[in-house]
Amino acid sequence: MRDPVVRDALVCVHARPEHPWTTESLAAATAVSRTTLSRHFRSALGQTPGAYLTQWRMDLASVRLRDTDEPVESISGAVGYASPHAFSRAFRRARGMPPGEYRSRLRK
Hints:
The chain has 108 residues and is mostly helical. It contains 7 helices and no strands. The relative contact order is 0.13.
């Protein structure tokens, strides 16, 4: 990643996906303003920091659902969701099906 602002933010997000990141807290962690962080993200990745974080969390959850027998409740907390219900809603929006169904389909 050539952009140091985005690179530093990605290091934070990848190291601690369970952290309750907001654009503001991520900007503070990378020592830039919210506006600067958002502008750099849009330019480098074509999306907002929040959209990237959601995508990253769903990617991590998808791998865990595919590769482990870990309960959905455990996965939801590990990828930063306060409740399994909130995680399931977000997962359905991102993947078009609930986590349990996603796991079942991948294992058939």
